[in-house]
Amino acid sequence: xxxxxxxKLKSGLSKSASKVEGAIxxxxxxxxxxxxxxxxxxxxLILADLGVESASIITKKIKxxxxxxxxxxxxxxxxxxxxxAEEIEKILLPREENLYEKVKSKPHVLLLAGVNGSGKTxxxxxxxxKFRLEKKSVVLAxxxxxxxxxxxxxxxxxxxVGAQVVSGEEGGDAAAVAFRAFELAKKDDIDIVIIxxxxxxxxxxxxxEELTKxxxxxxxxxxxxxxxxxxxxxxxxxxxxxxxxxxxDESIGLTGMIITKLDGSAKGGVVxxxxxxxxxxxxxxxxxxGLDDLQIFEASSFSKALAGLx
Amino acid sequence: MFENLTDKLGNVFKGLTKRGALSENxxxxxxxxxxxxxxxxxxxxxxxxxxxDKVKVRAVGEEVLRSVTPGQQVIKIxxxxxxxxxxxxGSELLxxxxxxAVILLVGLQGSGKTxxxxxxxxHLKSxxxxxxxxxxxxxxxxxxxxxxxxxxxxxxxxxLPEIDGESPEKIAKRAMAASKVQAIDVLILDTAGRTxxxxxxxxxxxxxxxxxxPSETLLVADAMTGQDAVQTAKxxxxxxKISGVILTRSDGDARGGAALxxxxxxxxxxxxxxxxxxxxxxxxxxxxxxxxxxxxMGDVVSLVEKAAETIAEEDAAQMMKRMSEGSFxxxxxLKQIGQLKKMGGLxxxxxxxxxxxxxxxxxxxxNFNDKAISKQExxxxxxxxxxxxxxxxxxxxxxKRIASGxxxxxxxxxxLVKQQQDMARMMKKMGKMGGLxxLKxxxxxxxxxxxxxxxxxxxxSVMDANKMAELxxxxxxxxxxxxxxxxxxxxxGLPGLGGKPSKKRR
Lengths: 310, 506
Fold this sequence. Notes:
heterodimer; A: alpha/beta; eight-stranded mixed beta sheet; 49% helix; 13% strand; B: alpha/beta; Four Helix Bundle (Hemerythrin (Met), subunit A); Rossmann fold; 434 Repressor (Amino-terminal Domain); 3 domains; 25 helices; 8 strands; flat; disordered C terminus
């Protein structure tokens, strides 16, 4: 599984990776890393959406390293890529946390939130599929009562992954749908409740309040619920991810994040600066449209892929 | 969407304008900060480089450094280059040739194509009087076609019926045949989201493009996109001929860098921006105005247009008449609050006024927001009809009753009454003289009169007529509209407060 993910991620990241390699390749025959190369590396990190600050911090770490020279008295290129990967891994490792290992209670309530189009519904289905494979029963709560056909989308997925779907009427109360799903899970002895909420931009105060309300209402049945509150970030997003993470965390207190759409040309490098700034765990990455395309996040694989290492 | 970038650039420029003379070094340093600000706003690195180079070449020229106000010269150059990068003209959809004209929407997953298709259909139907048909070629995402059908129903346009098992190419052909038969003006094809690395999906897009020969091929992209915007735009425009970009979620707090990148990489204009989740949340994009917003010079043109769109002419005429009579009562105030709300609330209006970025923050800090306006509305609704016309009836016990009726405190009622009286006084004045001075006062009384001195001051300094003239001077001939707009703006007052808007522009 891990290898599979790495391959997929690597093929997705290949464009950026080859560029980092390119930046490093310009070192050929050099005894020290010159400013030009460092600028190149920094630019490549910026291109991967790490942001100016994180990119310059990491570049500085590369600069401060004393690299051993090989027999031709030049710097070993893979050495630099390795160092780069190590530096990124150091930042990401503390945030690595398996989504599925956090299931302790029954029913366990997992709420997915995020901006519009980040991939919440597809991710909900992928998570449900994983639980199904673990022989756990799942109920999906279609709390997106706003967007046209959002409920139908989740219902179709529900059929495919053999999960019940609780829904309300269009334009109805999102919190009520979540509540009823939880109630049903308690009554029917179902293991997992996944709440798929409507997409909302983080600067829309009213919509963020609706999300807080959903959590509050669900907690009436179990004060620890929702046990997991996960934000779904689009892998193509840039520095706005900071604002998203901050706002969603402030309104519902996030327990983790999932990064989607890393099978495209986007690198999701903003994760690195997010990991630096926030102590919110990273659970998984989405690498395709298939049901099994949600992979556990591994700091080392991700870092290697970003640095262009095999 | 540009507020954050505006703030950052504002700080950089503040440093520049304070100084009498600029050395090359000063400019260099400022541009370094501009670079960081742009990168943090997710402007693509290649675009940032080009941008900085362009500005640098012009800024270190001798005229700039020797001019009396070098800092402002640099700002002017940045503004010019911004407009260049964003494209200098807004552009209409080219859909007027032999019907049916096809509009093809492409983009990554979750960029907002289907919602945009619905909005576009609504726009073409309601504003351009076109007969529109929607067809979904997304056979992959569950319920995608159902979503489009519902949106079509909401927009009240035709939607191609679904047939299971058809390929996207077949659906496109069927849609074209159907729209010919049904005399459709514009056929909008909504495609499935795809990553640019997926070769099978990309060649499918190319097939559909070839066989539908679209009049417009629009790339739908998320305003929050990071550096990948360039990759995406490149990949699509290399594959098929993109004619324009629609930037969605522009109502978020993303810094708008994607707008700059997309335009620069595709060479295509940004034609629309998505500004809400609702069906009417699609607005034409105006590059010059966007540049103005980025540099916090406001977008008065859009504001006036919006006002003209929202406020019926006879309403305005009537208001004008009442104003000159000096009779501005609670009913007028209620009407005005309603219009303010229609125009997107205070936030919507403020975002279009020059120099108002900081003010917005002050307002937030002072808890003066759209809620406060709703509160005012509630207070007026709790008055009797007589009271609304004749405020002098309001003695202590009536005020108490109104407060409990509207769920507010007596002090809130008092404040509103004072505000109304201030306004009535000023209306009378303005009715006589018109002009921007009136506007200034009006805005500070909107802000709660003396109860909020900080706010009042902010507005005074911002909307000062001199400042406006200075701004115009600074911008040289490059924002010809601003001067005119300032006059017109003054003439009509704050929308809804009376004055006569110019004829509907569209």
